Amino acid sequence: MMLKIMVPVSIIVKLLQISGGIEIIGSALAPIMKLVGLPGEMGLVWATGMITNLFGGVIAFINLSGNHPLTVAQITILATMMLVAHTFPIELQIARKSGLKLITMLFIRFGFAFLFGLILHTFYSQFNLLGETAIIKLKPDLIQDLTILGWIKNELKNYLIIFLFIFSLMFLIKLLKVLGIIKLITKLISPLLRFLGISESVTTITIVGLTLGIVYGGVLIINESKSNEIKRRDIFYSMTLMGLCHSVIEDSILMISIGGHYSGIIIGRIILSLIITFIIVKITSRFSDALFGKLFLNKVKI
Questions:
Q1: Which label site among 11, 42, 65, 201 has the fewest CB atoms less than 10 Å from its CB?
Q2: Which uninterrupted H or E stretch holds 240?
Q3: What span, in angstroms and rounded, lies between the C-alpha atoms of 268 and 246?
Q4: Which tens digit of pLDDT belongs to each residue from 180-189?
């Protein structure tokens, strides 16, 4: 199933890179970037992250940072927006495969990424925080194999890593279930998720997504949903929270290494994600099944 998603997406992304499509999208984002206190050129960075992945966005940022030095606050805003909205071609397809409307998840992640950036910009500006010029700790070697063969090798390597990780993760979760550790973790975390309105049936999967990433959490949801033991509302709520806040450890470290601050990247993102999810759950829980399905669910059999 993952190959059906990742291979076509990889080809489309490569075509966008070759044709200059990413630059066009970046230019279109310039007005939005200015609203959150960033140079319009940073639209290219966000566009690259959304179309490729966070590492692609980081490389684009490092290439531009020499001509556009930013403050810690500005990088934190950009990084937080990228953390919420990135790798759309793959991650939105995973959401669709789990039974959700792609356009709805696109709106949620893009819209709230902008909202998070606007809130952080207002907060940092109001209290005059993090105004010093950022120091970029991560400066990787930007020389890459740009040939088609090099790209194919890199993509195959990425696929292998992801597949091995997913299979290992599924085995580990089964082992943890047998040992009773999953049950213990669920008891500790479920009160918070229950307060948000997220069922215990997706607690473990949500935790995986929050800590490791939406690809892994989403794949587990697709796998578990086949048993019909998980309600589609719970899938939507879980994917919403994971969409806004996932891979909290690894991705946060990456963004801090390019000059971002933990106040927005970790604390702000977690708090805002929980609040937004709570509001979405409370509002949509009043919807009839028919209305809920029309707005948020697709007709793909999961």
A1: 11
A2: helix 232-244
A3: 13
A4: 876 776 677 7
Which amino acid appears at position 101 of this protein? Answer: K
72-84 helix and 250-257 helix, angle to the nearest 10 degrees: 150
pLDDT reported for residue 29: 93
State how far the Cα of 264 lies from the Cα of 271, in Å rounded to an integer.
Answer: 10
**What burial letters (b/e) apply to 34-45, b meaning 16+ CB within 10 Å?**
eebbbbeebbbb
Residues 138-174 as b or e (16 or more Cβ within 10 Å = b): eeeeeeeeeeeeebeeebeeeeeebeeebeebeeebe
The ranges assigned to domains in the chain are 2-134+145-296
How far is CA 99 from its chain centroid? 18
Entry pTM? 0.81
Using a 10 angstrom Cβ sphere, with 0-12 exposed, 13-18 middle and 19 or more buried, the burial of residue 283 is: exposed
Q: Give the CA dihedral 208, 213, 219, 223, nearest 10 degrees.
A: 10
E strand segments, the chain: none
Structure tokens at 64: 């531009």
Torsion of the alpha carbons at 292, 293, 297 and 299, rounded to the nearest 10: 180
> 269-284 and 72-84 are packed helices; what angle lies between their axes, rounded to 10 degrees?
40
- Chain centroid to Cα 153, Å, comes to 25
Mean pLDDT by 10-residue block, N- to C-terminus, for the chain (302 residues)?
A: 60 75 86 95 91 82 79 98 95 91 96 98 97 78 62 74 67 78 74 86 85 79 74 92 89 88 96 96 95 88 48
